[in-house]
Amino acid sequence: MTAEGTWVQGDTSPDMVGVLHAKDSLTTIIDLTSAASVNFQMRKADDKHYTVNQPADVVGSPADGRCRYEWGVNDLSVPGTYWAQWEVTFNDGKVQTTVAREIEVRRQ
Question: What pLDDT score does 4 carry?
């Protein structure tokens, strides 16, 4: 997943966009053709609870593994270091989660 980056407290743009890769290979793209859903998940580095755990959109061909999450109004309201990942649930009920990547929300 490409997710490293910095956002500013209170922003709602640009969207979080990622190409989902298998945990064991950063060159193997997760084919989302048989995905029932994809969630974007984000939590503060020192917290066990998600700040964001919401549905994401598949962008373009599902075989390309590209997803987008549009920030909600309060998603980036608290500055700090966060871990972000994508959770894919397939039609057969299996779940695959990407490697978490660090993002930063800086103060305005």
Answer: 67
